[in-house]
Amino acid sequence: MQCxxxxxxxxxxxxxxxxxxxxxxxREWNDVRLNKDYSITIIIPIESNQVPYVIDAGNQIDSSYPxxxxxxxxxxxxxxVIKLKFLNGMTLSEWMLNYVETYFFSYEYFKRYGVFxxxxxxxxxxxxxxxxxxxxxETDLTKTYYLMRYIATKPYRGHFKCLxxxxxxLRDCHGKYVIAYYNNFDAYEFLKQDLxxxxxTLYKVRKGKE
Length: 210
Fold this sequence. Notes:
The protein is of the alpha+beta class and 210 residues long. The chain has 2 domains: 7-113, no CATH class; 124-209, no CATH class. The protein contains 6 helices and 4 strands; from the N terminus they run ββββαααααα. It has helices at 79-87, 92-113, 124-136, 141-153, 175-182, 185-209; strands spanning 7-12, 16-29, 32-45, 53-55. Strands 1-2-3-4 form a 4-stranded antiparallel β-sheet. A hairpin with a 7-residue loop joins strand 3 (32-45) and strand 4. The protein is elongated and about 55 Å long. It starts with 6 loop residues before the first strand and ends with a helix.
């Protein structure tokens, strides 16, 4: 609220704090400048593993925009990415600067030029697999899934054949990317949770086809 003077506390409850008001976005990238006010509502969960949530209170984001939910919520990034940033010390003001402001700039840039200035993350399990593929240095989503299952269900064994099918030992292939999860408790736990979500979604899709 010190950084965004027009945001006010609307409600304080045991489970969440709600802020509402206007924020000014004054950003420039690639010789494109945005200076515009947006009316938003921010839901900040308390004692929860959920991330803060932003609603387009002013209906300034087109309802057909793929990263705006039907309820007006904004899809900023995969929750796991934001959770890890907070666990690593990111503040709410940094979250606003790096995710909320960037979202609005990206939206306006897309409206003007038809492309996303900083890339686009697909929704759902494809977006999750794409994210973990980046972290595991693997472009094939199926191989990414196999690597995730190995991490979630087995101890690290560098002499095992790599799950990507390269026929190399894990330590000589994806090993350094895989072992990073065994050495980071939070990232490891989030991977297991995200894998469960991926597998549950795949299960529902298969059941729907039967």
